[in-house]
Structures are given as structure tokens and as C-alpha cells.
Amino acid sequence: MRISIERAQLLRAVSQAQSVVERRNTIPILGNVLIEAEEADVTFRATDLDIEVIDKAAAQVGRAGSTTVSAVTLHEIVRKLPDGALVTLNADPSTDIVTVEAGRSQFQLKTLPKEDFPVMPASQYSSNFSVKAEVLRRLFDKSKFAISTEETRYYLNGVYMHVAESEEGRVLRCVATDGHRLARIDAELPAGAEEMPGVIVPRKTVGELRKLLDDDEADIAVSVSETKVRFATPDVTLTSKVIDGTFPDYTRVIPANNPKRLEVDAKDFARAVDRVATVSSERSRAVKLSMDEDRLILSVNAPDSGAAEEELAVAYGDEKLEIGFNAKYLLEIASQVDRENAVFMFNSSGDPTLMREGSDTSAVYVVMPMRV
Amino acid sequence: MPSLCRDCLTCFETGSRCPSCGGPRVIAHPELMELTIAHMDCDAFYASVEKRDHPELRDRPVIVGGGRRGVVSTACYIARIKGVRSAMPMFQALKLCPEAVVVKGRMEVYVETSRRIRALMEELTPAIEPLSLDEAFLDLTGTARLHGAPPAVMLARLAKRMEEEIGVSGSIGLSHNKFLAKIASDLDKPRGFAVIGRAETADFLRDRPVGMIWGVGQAGQAALNAAGIRTFADLRRWDQKALMTRFGSMGQRLYHLARGEDARRVTRDRAVKSISSETTFSEDTADREILDGHIWRMSEKVSDRAKAQDRAGRVVVLKLKRADFALVTRRHALREPTQMADTIYRAARALHEQLGQPGPWRLLGVGLAEIVPAAKGDLSGDLLDPDSRRRAAAERATDAIRARFGADAIRKGRGLR
């Protein structure tokens, strides 16, 4: 195999590959990227056995062929090459070396036989549909902060993407929760997605998917089966196993009738929370919200380090309420609000609180209060 | 050589008997008046308290512990002569010493006695680090002027006052760090006073077994033996890097301890590492219902103690001992620290269900680890388990009833299994 490829193209492909490969793996081939050259196309394939990413890049193919080489090392090299460099990869099938040349730099890297490279078996997908990148981006960006890292509840280690019945009709919905907070984001149901099985998209896949979604208008081809999900752009195909588990019935934890309503400018609110939380060095910093007649007092009392208080003008007309939250969780949900005011719906200081953007119910967040 | 009479607290320079009272309980050491770190260990504490309160037991072998299948928690020195040791199964202890009087422990009395000893220590220094009810480290650095006497004298006086005012004896180890002070307190038991000075530290340790190191148990000793390390001299032959490669973070500590170095400070609030409770069954069992009943009762006990101490724990530990004494432990990290019996029980039960080993078992224990103050536990509850809030409220209400009408005033049915 002999190919010449522009640095930027190569960097994009290799950086996606190196983020997929397992860093600390004991099977060396899983740290490699499979490079296959045919005619005018080169594909870069990397996998950790759960996720596979295939990246197609334009290149001049001098001699067709294929090889595998350490994704991390190749990425490091390409990253350090000067911008605009033309990189030549040359793998002599009779040796286990690939030569990387750019300008006056030359590198020789060990390869592993491509026959050992695990290729994810092709699957049948029961649903295939197309979504604009910006729609997927919103669904996942606004939900992923709530993904759990708790290993014992592995079924929470991802975003539950499924079709749901909302007040506005059937929607494509993403839900994530870690038992402290929950995010529920809806989007218009794309044609062809009606029969889609609900799947839990793993955290790492969500991270990799994000890299395909930068171009608002790009169409993303989504394919879903009971066990796998695939997202594809013309250049990149990301295939992932989904989490084999049942996502809990989240509908019963979303409070429907919380009576007390607080409306506040989300940015002012977030900044104030951030400021008062500074005095506490605890891992779970508790912020107390005290509400009374269009007035909100945010306070932190950290016995070891200090106290802080800040008052905000808000819209609040219900009976007095004091309630505590983890500052980090408040900040995270408040920062999801980008257009209108944040509206909080409370019940008591011990019950879950709901937050949404204005009257928009296509993105709702639930957060557990904290004893303060 | 600086000498001290432990009976009348006279300091003198020469002679093996006290020039003032003529007594033989003299301690002499070149560094006696300079060393400041001490370890005080009561002698057969629980048994001594029992003998103090029941003078008729004074000359009989006394074992404090529970039940035929329980274990010895303390044996008095008479029983120890027969080979009875702490943590020995009771049946074995009674085989060795059939004439022993077995006393069920009276924890509240021991706690009270310990509190009185602590009060005496408080008069010496604020830097006290209790390890349990019956032992503590004391740092008397810089107290000589305040007391008008060097630490050795104050410590001898502490031992004397414990005997006279509280009625229990203790042994003192005096050295220049905690590691050596703890070793020293064990050298001259009971009613002992032993000193390890800087000058003799290396000689003292050289041929001692590494099993003396606090925290090196059977498994640790086996690992060290496998590396050819039996004595401190063996240990000293290893360089720091090699020890760390082989034994991880413990390696670094071993390197320093091999040289008698220990920089740990005597800290008042030594973190409590765990709260646990275990029970040995009257007969081995594999019955899930029965085991579940034990899990609940142990969870409740752990919870009661955590609540009493105002603490919570982030990790729930389940411990089971097979009929052949093989130990199985499982840990589960909770989302947030807890002190609630319900939460501890649910986690321990899940660990038991996931165990995949049917037993039969002879012992079951439940514990909390990664202890934090209660104020940092049970802060928010689980969004996905709305019932947990109701169960927590029920538990708080139950606790209030039990606090008022006694621990048995209200019980869960599962505790009766």
C-alpha cells in the first residue's frame, strides 16, 4: 500500500480513530487503526469491539493495499507535522513496517497483520431514517450531562433514545439520568423512525457521535436495531452496540403537578449560583434557595470554609419555600437554557423539582433536592 | 543513666532500686527524658473491668465474649497462660481452659471506663489518638514545661492513676514515633513501661519479624515471606523502588518502617474507617430466608451505631464466612453516603443475591466503609426510587419510637426470621 494524503484529512480520520481505540487494552490489535486503500479512497477503521468508526478520506493511492498501525502513535505524529504537509504512507507487504513521510521527516512504524483486525459483523437494522445534525446535536447535548457513571446501574450509562408519546404527539426522545437529575429532550419524529426500538446509546458513543454533528445542515443517516445503532455521514460511519438493559420507567419520576413556580433569567441565575458556591470546597456543594414574593435568596453555608448569600429578583408568587440543591446540578441544568427564562416547578423541599425553558416542554429537567 | 521509679515517680541517675521508696519498678534508659510519643494499651481491658467490678473473679480465668459459637473478645492474663487468645472461637478457648468463667461483655461499662481513662489522658496532652476503647497514642512533645516534668514521668503517673482511680492497669510504650511506641507498649505487658530510643532503633528492629508491623496481617506476611522478607533486616536490603514495584503504596511505608521511620502524626480525629457488625450462627446455614433475616439485623445494628456516632458510609460491605472458615467479602459503592438501615440492607441484600455462592455459611457480617460525617450522608435520595423517601421517613419515625420506648418497641418482620 502506498498513499499520499493531505495532513488535515489524515488528522481528522486518525484523531477519530485514536479516540475510539481502547488506550489500556491488552490486545494490541485493538490499539491499531486499519488503513485500506482502494482507487481514490482510503478508509480508516478503528474499534474497541463495542464501537466501530470508519472514516473515508480522499487520497492519491499509489498502490492499493492495507495495513494496521498504532492509532495513538500515528495520531501523535500527524498532529506534530506542519499544517499543509503532504503525508505519504508506504507499507511494504513483505515487511511489518509502514513508513510515514512528510517533508524531511520520516517515521517507521511497526504494523500488525490486517487479518487479525476485528471487523464488526454487519447487522440488519429494523429502522433507518435521516435527521439533521443540529436536531441530533440538541437531543444528545442537552441530555448527556445527566448520564450516570455508576457501574452497578449500567443501564443508566447512556442516553435512552426512543419514540415516545408527548403532548404534541409522537416524538423522538432522548432521556438520561443518574438518579440525581434527569434530562428529557424531545424532537420531531423523523419519517421512518416510527417503529424504531428504544435503545440506550452508551456514553462513549455519544461522545464519538458528537464529532459528526458540527455541520448544522448535514443529514445524518441513523439506523437502529435491538442491539446496535449506526450514525453515518457521507464520510464517517459510526456503529455501536447499545447497552443491553432496560431503561427504568422515567415517566413516573417526572413531577407533573408541582404547584410552586419560579421564573428566573437563566444566565443571571447560573452566575449567582456559581458565585455563592465558591465559598464551599465540598465535593457536593449545597446551595439553598429561599423564595418569597418575587425574591430569591441563594445561600451557601459551609461550616469549614465560609458562607455566601446573593439576592435575585425573580417571578415567584407562591408560599415561602426553602430548598437545597447540589450547586453543580443546578449549574448544569441552568446552562441548558439558551433562549428563554428558566422556569422551576417545586413541590416541597424533599420532592424532585422540575425545570424547563419558558413554557417549552420539549426539554425538561428534573433534579433531586438536597438536605441543607 | 536517667532512671524513673514507676511507683513513687522519683527521678534519679544510678541504681536498680528507687533511692526514695526502695521499690524495684524502675525504668532506666539513656533517652528516657527526651522521648515524647507514647502508646498506652490497657491490659486485658474488658476482663480487667469485669474483675474490678466482680472481685470474686480476681483469681479465676475470665473470658469476655459471646455464646458457644462466638469468639473471645478479651481473655484475662490467667486465661492467657492456658493459651486463650482474643478472636479465638469460644469452643476452642473452653477446650484450652475449661474452668474459665465466660462473661458476656457489658459494652456500656467499658465505654464509660474508657471515657474516664481518656479524661486522665486529656490532662497530659490534647494530642490523643484513640485506636479503640483500650488503647491510644499520645504526643507529649512540648509539654514538659507545662507539667514541670518530662513525658516519661507524666506517663508513669498516668499508669499509676489508672490503677488507683479507675482500677485497670495499662502498659506504656515510649519512643520517637507511633510505629515504635506501639511496638514498645507490647514488650513489657502487663503493667509495663518500655522505651525504644533513637540510638537503638536499628538494632532493636533488625531480627524482629516483619509481622510486627501494624497492618501486616497473615496475608501481608505471606506476601513478604514470598519475597524472602522475614525480618526487618531482610526488609532493609530492599531499595524503595523495588519495594514499591512489588508492594505498591505499602512498599514505600515498608521502606521507612524498616528503618524505624514513621512520620505519621498523632491526630485527634483519626478517621473512623468502618462501622460493622457480624454474627456467628448457632449452626451453619444456606437458607436464604434465614440469611436475609441476619442481613437485616446486622444492617440495623450498623445503622444504629452509625446514627449514634453521627456518621454515614459510602460503601456497604458484606462479609460471609464459609463452614471451612474461608472468607468472602463483597463491596458496593453507594451513590451517596448513608446511615439508613434500609439503604444498607438493600445494598447488602443485592450483594448477597449477586454472590453466586450458596454457602452454607457460619458467619455473616455487614459493614459501612468510607465513613463521613452524617451531615454529608443521605442528602438527596434516589430520583429513580421514589419509594425510598417514604421508607426513609418510616425509618426516622421508627427510630424516634425506639429512642423513646426501647430498641424492641418496634421491629421489622424480616428481623424475626
Structure in a nutshell:
Chain B: This is DNA polymerase IV. Chain B: Its main location: cytoplasm. The complex is a heterodimer of chains A (372) and B (417). Chain A is α+β, with helices and mostly antiparallel strands and 372 residues long.
Give the SSE layout:
The complex is a heterodimer of chains A (372) and B (417).
Chain A: E1 2-6, H1 7-20, E2 32-38, E3 41-47, E4 51-58, E5 60-63, E6 65-70, H2 71-80, E7 86-91, E8 97-102, E9 105-112, E10 127-132, H3 133-141, E11 158-166, E12 169-177, E13 181-188, E14 199-202, H4 203-210, E15 219-224, E16 228-232, E17 236-241, E18 260-264, H5 266-277, E19 286-292, E20 295-302, E21 306-313, E22 315-316, E23 321-326, H6 327-334, E24 342-346, E25 353-357, E26 360-367
Antiparallel strand pairs in A: 1-5, 1-7, 2-3, 2-6, 3-4, 4-17, 6-9, 7-8, 8-9, 10-15, 11-12, 11-14, 12-13, 13-26, 15-16, 16-17, 18-22, 18-24, 19-20, 19-23, 20-21, 24-25, 25-26
Helix pairs in contact in A: 1-2, 5-6
Chain B: E1 3-5, E2 11-12, E3 26-28, E4 37-42, H1 45-53, E5 62-65, E6 72-75, H2 77-81, H3 90-96, E7 101-103, H4 107-122, E8 128-132, E9 135-139, H5 144-147, H6 151-166, E10 170-175, H7 178-185, E11 193-195, H8 201-206, H9 218-226, H10 232-236, H11 240-247, H12 249-258, E12 274-285, H13 288-309, E13 311-322, E14 327-338, H14 341-353, E15 361-373, H15 387-405
Parallel strand pairs in B: 5-7, 10-11
Antiparallel strand pairs in B: 1-2, 1-3, 4-9, 4-10, 5-6, 8-9, 12-15, 13-14, 13-15
